[in-house]
Design goal:
The complex is a heterodimer of chains A (256) and B (673).
Chain A (H helix, E strand, L loop, with lengths): L3 E12 L6 E12 L3 E5 L6 H8 L7 E6 L2 E2 L5 H11 E4 L11 H11 L4 H15 L14 H13 L5 E5 L7 H17 L4 E5 L2 H4 L4 E6 L2 E7 L5 H14 L4 H4 L1
Parallel strand pairs in A: 3-8, 3-9, 6-7, 7-8
Antiparallel strand pairs in A: 1-2, 1-4, 4-5, 9-10
Chain B lengths: L2 H15 L1 H19 L4 H7 L4 H35 L1 H9 L4 H41 L13 H28 L2 H5 L14 H24 L9 H30 L1 H4 L4 H14 L1 H29 L10 E6 H4 L4 H7 L8 E15 H4 L18 E6 H10 L11 E5 L3 H13 L2 E4 L2 E5 L21 E4 L1 H4 L3 E11 L5 H13 L5 E5 H44 L1 H9 L4 H42 L8 H35 L1
The chains are: A alpha/beta (256), B alpha+beta (673).
């Protein structure tokens, strides 16, 4: 596929030593196309976060290759890695990971100034993304002065402001109540549809997953199933997701 | 957003969060400055001009202590910095995730260290300046210098030393930070808080064995110290072996203590299962186990502190009890015959505009001769072990005094003259370091030949008179008293003018006249003045006691700060456990009590061990000081106890209150949510 942003090629990730070897990721391959909103689902301990960590260069693969924009990131080192993370990737974490010494505005602008963007340009871009995400009024607040939903939107703004090739979201709704979750997911959908952002989201929550276009189900480090939303409504897709989840082995209630 | 702005913001946050770290940094700087500035105070530099052997040794002692203190402080600061770094792992991870290069992160951390360092240095120096003035005031009083001499002094030397030492320390910290940053793995940073403690060794027998091994090695070290003293000896390696045993034993003790403790308490379920004791025991157990290194270090430092402060204070108190009978004269002027020729000292003084007739009530000039054999031959056949400062006398000729001179000196003190026949001799000695050898020499030599004249022993007891004065408890190392006609054949060594003041004489005025004479290097005139000697004797002793207390204070502060820092950090890390306890239905008082016991045990454990060590080591240390100072010292612990209550106690209290506040705040926040 020519418009593949991410190409994961037969990767493996082992933990531990000879005594107790854990295969967290076991021969996984898939692709993500430009403009796709893709989900990775699985129960706790299925290896989904490890997979995301490998893609995001936070962790290193044991074997296999990961290509982002045609570039093999498993071969990058040191400052190349830092550069790659800054320019090509945006992160949204479960616990937001905002710097609490900085205001919302500074948190967002930091991502740009690290990349060496001109100050005048920084102002414009922070404003534009804040408008899009509806956080203009909290820009001068510190993280502890904001609600969880606001913090997560600031984190999303920080992830988006650098125009990354791909946004990686690790359980982004994990720490939010259902209302904030819905708002965040709608926001991600908007980012995807209006700004054309490519999003890769890891979640164990079927509701969150139902916002994606395509879902990879992972079990014991292997791809278990793949589900395409196609023309389904979100509700129908949600039911389908639940069906797969129940087949996946874990009890349905556990995953709800 | 520039790196500078980020640095400033982080520093502001850190100073608020790590107040104890910053305070400790600041206090170390201030104490370091005050400590070094003391010797630069004018009152002490005057004293330095007398160039006594002791003062030179003191100079060496001072610089050694400075280095020691700097090293200890460096350890403390790097250790505290390690905490800061650990606590900020997540922040570091975010920078990396955002694509910041390690070089720039290192620069930010280095900049922060620099920033905090400069602020701590400046505030610490200001505090140190104020502190040193107070200390100087106390010191001036101790050294019996008029308060009028007091002036505000800013010591450039101490400033340079402080700035240099702390610059080096901060550089080390910076290098350490850069090294840590460039060695971290991103995955470890982001999951830092989720990481479990490494699984504990479940072997139950090994800790028990280690515990008894540690007890055994500590006891054997104690026995060795008790037998052989606490100074290294050239003959055997007892000191080194005992020291190693003690250090190893201490580490092992704290390493194994918690496991043994937990096992013992668990066996007793009536205690273990009451209230929150299960939680408390486990918490304390894991704390001591993970911090055994820190505990052992703190224990060592506390031992040094207790010994130093107790010995110092006891010495200072003992000095006050010294009688003044040791110096029967007010002023001695000595002239070196080989340099100035044999003449009247009084005439020389008059020629130098130092006429004493207005001040003196009694004056006598006596002469000390040098025998044609040395102390070495006097002490022949004895196993002589002199104190290091006296080793030179073995090669010098024995002092000889004519009996008429001796009797004139005694007459001034209102004492009866001694009677000596034509061919008899006596021995006089009042110096502790040589007395036993002189006594033995008198016993061995019923008769000997001095410059060809045979002499018989007149009495078998050594006289203990003071016929001229040097310094307190540091006088005649052994002098032959011989008939007048014998000395005529000997070489005259020094003439001594003995002076007793009139009751209304102004000793300062005399001193003013004597100082230029004493400083004149072209002549061999030297003087000893009673008041000045007292100042010096008490001054030197006071300085040593003072230094002991000082070092003790620094170590104590360091210990308290280390423990406080550790306890605070751990409480922050474990805060969720207290939330959990409350959810399980524990009352607030129960939780507070657990916190209090935890903090108390954490502070008390090293202190208890240090107390036991001190009891063994202090007796021995006291013996050494007694020998060196020539005075008897009775041990006084009151001051030490008070000092500990104040410093250690307040750090303990501050820690407990901060921990309590942290837990409370956490709970309140949770309730609001």
């Amino acid at each position: 596929m020519s418009n593949a942003i991410l190409q994961v090629d037969d990767i493996q990730k082992y933990y531990g030593n000879r005594g107790s070897l854990t295969k967290a990721v076991d021969h996984i391959s898939f692709q993500v196309c430009k403009g796709e909103f893709m989900g990775i689902m699985g129960a706790s301990g299925s290896g989904k976060t490890t997979l995301l960590n490998c893609i995001s260069t936070i962790d290193k693969v044991t074997s296999g290759h990961i290509l982002v924009d045609g570039k093999d990131i498993t071969a990058l080192h040191g400052s190349q890695l830092a550069d790659f993370r800054g320019k090509k990737l945006g992160f949204i974490f479960q616990d937001f990971n905002l710097l609490d010494t900085l205001t919302a505005h500074e948190n967002i602008s930091l991502a740009l100034s690290i990349m060496g963007v001109k100050p005048s340009e920084i102002q414009k871009r922070v404003r534009r993304i804040s408008e899009a995400l509806g956080i203009l009024e909290v820009l001068d607040k510190y993280p502890y002065q904001m609600s969880g939903g606001q913090q997560q939107r600031v984190a999303a703004a920080r992830a988006m402001v650098t125009d990354p090739a791909m946004i990686l979201a690790d359980e982004p709704t994990g720490a939010l109540d259902s209302n904030s979750s819905r708002m965040l997911l709608t926001m991600l959908t908007e980012l995807n549809e209006r700004l054309g952002a490519t999003i890769l989201m890891v979640t164990h929550d079927a509701f969150s997953a139902s916002y994606c276009h395509r879902i990879l189900f992972i079990k014991d480090g292997k791809i278990f199933n793949e589900l395409n939303r196609d023309a389904d409504s979100r509700k129908d897709f949600f039911t389908k997701v639940l069906e797969v989840v129940s087949v996946l082995g874990g009890e349905q209630n556990d995953l709800l | 957003m520039t790196s500078c702005k980020l640095i400033v913001k982080n520093v502001r946050k850190n100073i608020r969060d790590y107040l104890i770290y910053f305070l400790t940094l600041m206090i170390s700087v201030s104490i370091f400055y005050a400590f070094n500035s003391i010797s630069d105070h004018p009152a002490f530099s005057e004293m330095g001009m007398t160039r006594t052997l002791l003062y030179n040794q003191l100079g060496i002692l001072l610089s050694t202590l400075t280095v020691l203190v700097a090293v200890v402080l460096a350890f403390l600061i790097i250790y505290a910095n390690l905490f800061l770094l650990k606590r900020r792992k997540k922040e570091l991870g975010i920078y990396m995730v955002l694509g910041m290069k390690k070089g720039r992160i290192s620069r930010i951390f280095a900049g922060e260290t620099l920033c905090v360092g400069v602020i701590a240095l400046v505030t610490g120096l200001c505090l140190g300046f104020a502190l040193s003035q107070g200390i100087s005031l106390v010191a001036l009083k101790l050294f019996a210098t008029p308060i009028a001499k007091f002036q505000l002094v800013f010591s450039m030397g101490a400033f340079r030393k402080t700035a240099f030492c702390f610059a080096v320390i901060f550089l080390l910290v910076m290098a350490f930070n850069v090294w840590s940053v460039s060695n971290v793995q991103l995955i470890d940073l982001l999951t830092a808080s989720r990481k479990n403690e490494t699984a504990q060794n479940q072997n139950r027998l090994l800790p028990l064995l280690l515990f008894f091994a540690s007890l055994a090695s500590m006891i054997s070290a104690g026995v060795m110290f008790y037998k052989n003293g606490i100074l290294p000896s050239r003959e055997n390696y007892s000191f080194q072996v005992a020291g190693l045993l003690l250090v190893a034993g201490t580490f092992l003790f704290f390493y194994s203590l918690s496991t043994v403790l937990v096992q013992v308490l668990r066996a007793n379920s009536s205690i273990y299962l009451r209230g929150l004791n299960t939680f408390l025991v486990r918490q304390v157990g894991s704390k001591i186990r993970t911090n055994y290194f820190l505990m052992a270090i703190v224990c060592g430092l506390l031992t040094v502190t207790i010994c130093a402060v107790s010995v110092g204070v006891s010495t200072a108190l003992a000095m006050n009890e010294l009688s003044k009978s040791a110096t029967p004269y007010d002023l001695n002027v000595l002239s070196n015959v080989s340099m100035d020729g044999d003449g009247s000292i009084l005439e020389y003084l008059v020629s130098k505009d130092a006429d004493l007739s207005g001040y003196a009530e009694n004056m006598e000039q006596i002469s000390i001769y040098e025998a044609d054999f040395t102390y070495n031959s006097l002490f022949e056949g004895q196993n002589v072990e002199l104190w290091p400062i006296d080793e030179g006398i073995l090669e010098s000729g024995v002092s000889v005094l004519a009996v008429s001179d001796f009797n004139r000196a005694l007459a001034m003190q209102g004492k009866e003259p001694v009677v000596l026949a034509e061919n008899e001799y006596l021995l006089n000695c009042n110096y502790k370091g040589t007395f036993q050898y002189v006594e033995k020499a008198l016993e061995n030599n019923t008769a000997f030949v001095l410059s060809g004249i045979p002499l018989q022993r007149a009495s078998d007891t050594v006289l203990e008179e003071t016929y001229f004065m040097t310094s307190v408890g540091n006088n005649d190392r052994g002098t032959l008293i011989v008939p007048d006609k014998v000395v005529g054949r000997l070489v005259k060594d020094v003439n001594v003018l003995l002076v007793q003041y009139r009751p209304d004489a102004d000793s300062d005025a005399v001193l003013q006249k004597m100082i230029p004479i004493g400083l004149d290097d072209s002549h061999g005139y030297r003087y000893a003045e009673k008041n000045m000697m007292y100042d010096m004797f008490y001054g030197l002793n006071a300085l040593i006691s003072f230094l002991c207390c000082y070092i003790g204070l620094i170590f104590l502060l360091i210990c308290a700060a280390l423990l406080a820092l550790k306890q605070l950090t751990e409480t922050t890390d474990n805060i969720y456990r207290y939330g959990l306890l409350q959810k399980l239905g524990a009352k607030r008082e129960q939780i507070n009590r657990t916190l209090l016991s935890q903090t108390a045990i954490f502070f008390a454990a090293p202190l208890a061990v240090a107390g036991v060590f001190s009891v063994i080591l202090m007796g021995k240390a006291m013996e050494i000081v007694e020998e060196f100072m020539n005075i008897h010292i009775s041990t006084n612990m009151i001051f030490t106890v008070i000092l500990f209550l104040v410093v250690y106690g307040s750090y303990f209290l501050a820690t407990y209150l901060s921990c309590k506040r942290m837990v409370m705040e956490h709970q309140n926040k949770r309730m609001e949510e």
